[in-house]
């Protein structure tokens, strides 16, 4: 079979790009730990408080075992509810030690939101009617901004919080 020179170049380019993108996906999945969320568990978005994890008193950071934490969050337009602190003020910053394992559990009461902890592999879509979960190890110290990366309305830019990983 005779192939024209330009056709050979084009085929090489096409197959090369395919190989490159597969390598990038493999790197993201196996090295960086980026995986799709499960979305297996459903929840009534009108009544998220009925779920044990999303009762107002169970929101926010909790140490469940030595070096293991759970963070329960309810997203709504335009806020992340991490519960309240001892003074009754809304929590906007959570602190965990470096190297700890953190399970983020989040749901939404209204529309689709995002939950990305910029600079880590935590990046979830939060859909009404579903519980999004992601467990990760906080390998690097620093302050990481939580942002909503799904446009959810006029106050979208006001949805943020901070995760501080200390040494
Ligand atoms: Cu948003």
UniProtKB/TrEMBL annotation:
The keyword Glycosyltransferase does not apply. Residues 66-167 form the Cytochrome oxidase subunit II copper A binding domain. CDD domains: ba3_CcO_II_C (cd13913). The keyword Membrane applies. InterPro entries: Ba3_CcO_II_C (IPR034214), CcO_II-like_C (IPR002429), Copper_CuA (IPR001505), Cupredoxin (IPR008972), NosZ/Cyto_c_oxidase_sub2 (IPR051403). It catalyses: 4 Fe(II)-[cytochrome c] + O2 + 8 H(+)(in) = 4 Fe(III)-[cytochrome c] + 2 H2O + 4 H(+)(out). Its main location: other. Keywords: Copper, Membrane, Metal-binding, Transmembrane, Transmembrane helix. Pfam families: COX2. The chain crosses the membrane at residues 9-31. It is found in: Cell envelope. It comes from the Bacteria. Subunits I and II form the functional core of the enzyme complex. Electrons originating in cytochrome c are transferred via heme a and Cu(A) to the binuclear center formed by heme a3 and Cu(B). This is Cytochrome aa3 subunit 2. It comes from Sporosarcina koreensis.
């Amino acid at each position: 079979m005779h192939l024209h020179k330009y056709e050979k170049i084009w085929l090489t380019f096409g197959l090369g790009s395919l190989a490159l993108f597969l390598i990038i996906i493999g790197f993201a999945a196996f090295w960086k730990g980026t995986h799709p969320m499960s979305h297996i568990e459903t929840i009534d978005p009108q009544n998220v408080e009925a779920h044990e994890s999303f009762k107002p008193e169970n929101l926010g950071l909790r140490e469940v075992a030595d070096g293991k934490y759970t963070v329960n969050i309810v997203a709504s337009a335009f806020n992340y509810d991490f519960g309240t602190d001892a003074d009754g003020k809304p929590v906007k910053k959570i602190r965990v030690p470096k190297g700890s394992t953190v399970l983020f559990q989040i749901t939404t009461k209204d529309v689709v939101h995002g939950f990305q902890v910029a600079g880590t592999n935590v990046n979830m879509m939060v859909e009404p009617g579903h519980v999004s979960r992601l467990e990760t190890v906080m390998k690097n110290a620093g302050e990481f901004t939580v942002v909503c990366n799904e446009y959810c309305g006029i106050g979208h830019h006001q949805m943020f919080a901070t995760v501080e990983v200390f040494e």
